[in-house]
């Protein structure tokens, strides 16, 4: 009888421990929409309504950026990049020169999407590893 109680308790502790690793539970998954693992955005694609704010959180120990592809957002849309750069070239220059726009572990970046459409973005330090994301904004 005691063995079964122990196993039930151990299973609960293990699940709670894993929850923190997965970006849920006590880590505040409700505080962000998109997490960043070592080499990917989670989820890679996220759908919102026009006017919604998306929050990215670096959930890994690696430094990451959130950098929109200028040719990958609607023409009327506001450009977005961690570090608040107003163009892709400015964000890339800042990253190359001084790691500008980098989000370290647990830091967040947010952007409000006003214009419906598809928004493609990248993590600059992990672009060669295809750390890409997409926001779909619906009416």
Q: How would you explain this protein's 3D organization?
A:
With 139 residues, the protein is α/β, with parallel strands linked by helices. The chain has 2 domains: 1-28, no CATH class; 32-138, Sandwich (Immunoglobulin-like), CATH 2.60.40. Helices cover 22% and strands 27% of the residues. The chain has 2 helices and 8 strands, in the order αβββββαβββ. The chain has a 4-stranded mixed β-sheet with strand order 2-1-4-6, with no helix packed on it. The protein has a 4-stranded mixed β-sheet with strand order 3-8-7-5. Mean pLDDT is 85; it is low at 1-27.
Short description:
With 139 residues, this protein is of the alpha/beta class.
Major sheet strand order = 2-1-4-6
Mean pLDDT, to the nearest integer, reads: 85
Overall 3D geometry? globular
Number of domains: 2
Structural class computed from helices and strand pairing? alpha/beta
CATH superfamily of the largest domain: Cupredoxins -  blue copper proteins
Distance between the termini: 57 Å
The total count of strands amounts to 8
CATH topology of the largest domain: Immunoglobulin-like
For this entry, what is the oligomeric state of its chains?
single chain
Q: Could you state the order of secondary-structure elements as H and E? A: HEEEEEHEEE
Taking the sheet with the most strands, its summary is: 4 strands, mixed
From the 3D coordinates, which CATH architecture of the largest domain would you assign?
Sandwich
């Amino acid at each position: 009888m005691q063995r079964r109680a122990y196993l039930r308790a151990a299973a609960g502790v293990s699940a709670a421990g894993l929850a923190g690793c997965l970006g849920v539970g006590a880590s505040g998954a409700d505080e962000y929409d998109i997490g960043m693992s070592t080499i990917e955005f989670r989820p890679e694609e996220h759908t919102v309504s026009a006017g919604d704010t998306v929050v990215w959180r670096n959930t890994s120990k690696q430094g990451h950026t959130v950098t929109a592809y200028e040719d990958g957002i609607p023409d009327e849309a506001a450009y977005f990049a961690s570090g608040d750069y107003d163009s892709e070239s400015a964000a890339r220059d800042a990253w190359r020169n001084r790691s500008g726009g980098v989000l370290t572990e647990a830091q967040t970046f947010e952007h409000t999407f006003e214009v419906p459409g598809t928004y493609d973005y990248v993590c600059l330090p992990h672009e060669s590893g295809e750390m890409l994301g997409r926001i779909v904004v619906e009416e």
